[in-house]
Amino acid sequence: MRNSNTNNWRSTALIAGAILTAGVVTTTSTTDVHADNSQNNAQVSNDQVTYDQVRATADQQLAQLQSANDSKEAQQATANEQSNAADLAQTNAQIDQLKASHAALEQEQAGAIAQAQASTAASIEVQTSAANAEYQQQINAQQQNEATQRAANDQQYAQAVSQAAENQQAVADINAQYQQALSDAANTQTSQAQAAANNYNSAVAKENDAYQGKLSAQQATNAENVKNAEASLATATANANKPYEVATTNEVAVTGRVAKPQTDVKVPDYVAKYGIHLEVRGYNGAIPVSDYTYPEFANTYYGEYPDSAVITNKATESTPHDISEMPLDFQPGLLSYDAKNDHSEKVSADGLTAAQVQVLRALALSWENGFRNNVFQNYREFYNAVNKNDGFVNVAPVDLVSTDFADNIANQVVANRTKYNVDNNSHTVKDSGMPTEATYSSIINNATQNLQKSLTSEFNGKTVYTDVNENLTTMQAGTPTLLNYAINLYNSMQGMYYGELVNPTHIGGHAVNLLRAGVRTVGIGFQKLTDEMTAKNGSGVSDRKNPSYAVTFDHIGFNINHDANLTKEVQSRNVWGTSTVDAQLNTIKTAQYHVNKVPGTKTVTPTATDVQKATASEQQKLADVKAQAQQSLDALASAHQANLNKLEQQYNDAKAQVKANYDAAVTKAASVRDAALKATGAVDLQAYKAQLDSAYQNLVKADRVAAQKLAADRDAKIANIKKTENAKLDAKINELVPSIDPQIKQLQDQHQAVIAHGDAVLAELKAENKAAYNKLAEQFNVQLAAIQQREDAKRANEVRLANNTVVLPSAVEATNDGNVDTVAFPTVTNRLQAETTGRIQPVSAPSIVKTATQTPIAVAPVVTTGNHVAENTVKSNESSAPVVTQTATVAATTNNGTQTPVASTADNKATKADNNEKSVVKADTVAKKQAPAKKSESSQKVDQSSMSIVALAATALLGTLGITYSSKKRHN
């Protein structure tokens, strides 16, 4: 089928402000806002002169006041030092005088002191000798008592020895009788032990014979039981090895038909021929021609290019027959359409239903993610070029999502575009004839304001950028079916993205917007175009019998401080809403690949594992029989061992009784002997001697303990004598020569009081000087703030164009909402630094340009910046947009995008702009085609005699917005 856009997309009227790859970048820094990086012929207002004069006077008077204050403080400090030194000299002299008097008195009383010391030493010696004598008397008494006890013991022992000699024969007879009794007891023990051993051995022999008979009978029974269990297992094993039939369910993978791009041309083919150019040229280069004007890449833009026949390839593999056959990835190349083989659902004359819109949203979301991932994986240079300043070089993007949150934004964008009659050639921006609050950026800001505040608070001290942009294209169908619309949208997005990926000078703006790694969700809107819109020249709509649509892609996201890890963590949070396209995508995925289950039968030859499972019961029975056999044998052995243990215990008890009988006979013999010896009066001399010696040693030990206490008491008494006598000596010496330490302490305290008083006087003087300085600085601040307000009000409606001033018809809101910045004068600690902050700076405001056809205008510079918030100048080696040549018949192929930081470091304070923050333009322009410009920026002139002030304003506005033009019309 011939594409429905053939020959209807080359020429349209200019729509001012439509070609935008730009956005407002807001920051909390106090950098000046510039509409251009070289502002010439700026006029200085009377208020500016007055401001500078007042500021100069302030600097001079504050410096003089500070100098005078410093002089007074230095004089006071010098006076303090002199006073302190004089008082210190006087104090030291008085102390020296006291010490000299004290030394003289000591010399005068030297004799008396010596006499007192001698008297004290003599008294201590007398008392110490008395204490030692008392101690020695106590020790001598102890020694005498020990000698008396030792003599008494010797006498008692000699008497016992004499008595033992007289009873010697009687003792010998008693001992002989005792030994005979012991011999009789031993013989009885031997005979009783032998009888017990004989009884034990006989009983053990009988038990062993009985056990052996029982064991033989049980072993025979066990063998028969095991034999029967093994036969049963053999039968079960034979049955289990027989093959058998089973019902089966086979899983059959079903791969659905998926259309493929109809060309084999790849992006690297183009790169190999023309090279990669990732930077936008400067003012001296021509606006580039998008690469889909080359035959090598023509297939990505509807199969057409200038001065060439239509590509009519309708390969079957590139022709889907239903929505389920649409590819979900997004490789370069177009799809064909065949109305005769279209099996998709119809689209009514009223347009797409809500369900059909969700299907198209699901496909478009999948294609956008496919493009992002394909470029990152296979064409990394382009992805890195877009994200080189955003922290995502060589960092894979997170997939976009389409959620209820994004759908609400998309639906509101469609409603506003419909309300304000915005056609498919214009973005959802103010320049398309809608109020600011209806633009896509305002809708997104309102929807994300709570999230912005939360992130700004969470990442305090870091810059939080908003990544917001809008792409726009047209969708139509020659046949009113969902498949025709889907193929038309697929091919349109091919041109919008792959068609702009490679360019002689830069990456196209639509591709740049989509490749930004900071975006996380996309609201895809479908605005039904009116007949009036489709009838416009350059609308690109040829098949007007069926509804046509402007399709908007509003991308939304945040970049946290250009840190990929922080950004991806925020992207992973559950703050972006609930997906509304999962069911649609899953339906298509299931149709393209699923698994069917088919019933059947098959003959199964049992495996070893199967046989093992089938005979498990019989195997268990055999194991149980063997276990029971072993248990019966173990029971017999256990009973046998128990009987042996019982016999052994009986034998041990008999032996114990024999031993007890022997011990009783020995004890009785000893008792008889002791009684006989006692009757004779005989004693054990050795034991008696030990008793006497023990009593003596106990006396010696008690005396040693007492002697230690006596020595301690003596030492304490002597120490107390010395303490008492020395205290008397100290009192006598202090009476003769009193101490001067209290007088010296009093003099030192008086000197410290003098120092403290001087410090207090100096501190009070400094506080007074500081208050006077601050009061004068505040007076100048108030005066300068009033001048600043007058200047802001005066410049609010003025725009400088070359040597002319244009007064706008409506006032620009004050950038600071009535709040005036306070001028920072030098502080007391940095009083000599010259501050420049607070001076009035000229601010460029946009002009208003009508969109009617105009006479060609000479080229004017366009200033954009590829940098983020804090960079306000375009460096010579960084990207800048080319110059613009305007013609009456050039179509506007545009995209619109902003990246806005919503928070900066907490150390800076910002003046409030339209969104309570200062803003600077950050643009990645869509540069497509222009006439070459041969002169450098500095040499470009504007012939003001050949154009009106309105034309000059239009040129300046377009330059400020970064507008460029293309030779082809389709995407915006």
TrEMBL record:
PANTHER family: CARD DOMAIN-CONTAINING PROTEIN, MYOSIN HEAVY CHAIN, NON-MUSCLE. This is Uncharacterized protein. Residues 67-86, 894-945 are annotated as: Disordered. The lineage of its organism: Bacteria, Bacillati, Bacillota, Bacilli, Lactobacillales. Residues 909-927 have a biased composition (Basic and acidic residues). It comes from the Bacteria. Residues 630-664 form a coiled coil. Keywords: Coiled coil.
